[in-house]
Specification:
255 residues, alpha/beta, Rossmann fold, binds S-adenosylmethionine
């Protein structure tokens, strides 16, 4: 598998970075129960932007029908490894973006899940229409619900003075777009912690510089370096950065 390949904004390197962070975070433990409270234990799931499949696996019971839509090569490979390791025939993986699902005559599922995918699209209305066409019982979106600007999983690790003021679309933005076509969802807020381990200080600096406002300014560079020296925690595998996160689990019941 090549290590760098662009797929809908995600390179394999970015996907591998996300998967490593998820492994150290409590994302699945915290989000899984909140989603189950909204949708129960579905006997069939369509998981749009399934990633590693860890979240989908925390929701469905064994033997449930599970279709994962995941265009990124690294993530799709992870999903296939999961199937092999557990001798499972599920999930079935479609390696295409959700925008191309029209080509497939997919059978509907009780639940359609889009976790951390809606914040990446500029077209939430079409995503919503695809979800409602495919779901027989519930549509569930997991969306960012940070109060501070958040550009990604590690934004909360940086203090406000360093944070890039741009943000990915949060649940408020997304729900505003759906105002005329969707009922108000049930919303559950969940706090959790993202943890990213860097092999060394240089790797941590390089990544965090990409999230920092005005990084060309030497004063910002000094602040970032000082912040990292104060807050990175040494551990067995390298230096760990912790970022507090908040998500909104939005659930709609199909009529
Ligand atoms: C932030 S990750 C979330 C993964 C997983 N849902 C989770 O909650 O852990 C977003 C995922 O959406 C995938 N993705 C990006 N654009 C997509 C698209 N247009 N259609 C389907 N998946 C997409 C990415 O490859 C990535 O795996």
């Amino acid at each position: 598998m090549s290590s760098v390949r662009a797929t809908h904004g995600w390179t394999d390197a970015a996907a591998a970075f996300y998967a490593r962070g998820q492994q150290h975070s409590d994302y699945v433990e915290r989000l899984g129960p909140a989603i189950r409270r909204g949708v129960g234990r579905p006997t069939s799931l369509i998981d749009l932007g399934a990633g590693t499949g860890d979240l989908g696996a925390a929701i469905i019971p064994q033997g449930a029908r599970w279709l994962a839509v995941e265009p990124n090569g690294f993530m799709a490979e992870r999903l296939r490894q999961r199937m092999q390791a557990h001798d499972l025939s599920e999930p079935v993986v479609i390696t295409q973006p959700w925008e191309d699902l029209g080509e497939h005559n997919l059978p509907p599922a009780e639940v359609v899940l889009a976790a951390n995918l809606p914040g990446m699209t500029e077209d939430p209305v079409t995503l919503w229409q695809v979800c409602t066409r495919l779901a027989t019982r519930h549509v569930c979106w997991v969306c960012g619900a940070e109060i501070e600007p958040s550009l990604g999983c590690l934004s909360g690790f940086l203090p406000p003075v360093l944070r890039d003021p741009r943000r990915t679309y949060g649940y408020d933005f997304l729900l505003r777009h759906l105002r005329d076509i969707a009922p108000t969802p049930e919303i559950r807020f969940v706090t959790w912690t993202w943890r990213q381990v860097f092999p060394d200080f240089a790797a941590a600096y390089l990544h965090c510089a990409g999230l920092t406002a005005d990084i060309a300014d030497p004063a910002q560079q000094r602040r970032l370096e000082y912040h990292l020296r104060q807050h990175l925690v040494p551990g067995e595998h390298g230096l760990m950065a912790e970022s507090p996160r908040q998500s909104a689990v939005c659930t709609w019941r199909q009529r």
